[in-house]
Predict the 3D structure of the following.
Amino acid sequence: MDALTIGNKKLKSRFFVGTGKFSNDAMVADVLKASGADVVTVALRRMNFKNPEQNILNYISDEHTLMPNTSGARNAEEAVRIARLARAAGCGNWIKIEVISDSKYLLPDNDETLKAVDMLAREGFVALAYMSPDLMAARRMRDAGAEAIMPLGAPIGTNKGLRTKELIQILINEIDLPIVVDAGIGKPSEAAEAMEMGAAAVLVNTALATAGNPVMMAKAFSKAVEAGRLAYLSGTGAVSEYAAPSSPLTGFLR
Amino acid sequence: MIIFLNGEKCIVVENTTVLDLLIQKNIDVDTIVVEHNAKILQRENFSQITLCENDVLEVLRFVGGG
């Protein structure tokens, strides 16, 4: 596949993988291997002193680009605090800025996200903005220094697919930053569709973690992302209202 | 004396450093990040900071997330 560059880093895959909700941490290693993913998301949480050995990083090899998220942040200030702590943990300067104060739909707060992007980009973070797909807000994120825009396809964890398709297409057409479709993608066909539309990458978590066989599903998504990207680069043919024969209309056997 | 460790009251003896506390709790210091009274601590300073009454300590690590 053609390379995607974000924050001066050339990535080897356009399939980003989230590591939440798997039945056990050890499965993450197998899922990542099957996915061929480069970028991997993690979250920062309080240490559980009853189980201090528990550590997701044991299952993520050094070859991956770690992208901590700011999940749990309800406003820009909390997101900035989490981002700074994540960087201090020594796993690079990438951050998925996620600011959510709505617990029913888990929809991102674009205004607070923008404030966090502005502050963190100034501090040298590679800031990827998880947001509702709004063109004006995305332009402001870009102007504030976001390195990529991550619009949701559907609410987090729903596996509903590309419900915001038309709005994502506008971002792809109008924003000169990588558009990474994040949240809601439930099936490989939906990942392929996002890539055919011209998305730079997709981020998938729940669809893998809730699959009957997460490792096999990771492989399926990997192929779908690649197929969608190749289709986009190929240029899909025009759609027509009426039939057009694929075989010659001459030399019929009568 | 009492400090607040990850939001809960925790009794520590006088002159306990951050590093002492982490060792008592069997924490591998290479994989965590610590915030002491809202200030991020560098790992090399864990042994320099002595805990005081009512200090607020947050010890965090990465978990699976999307």
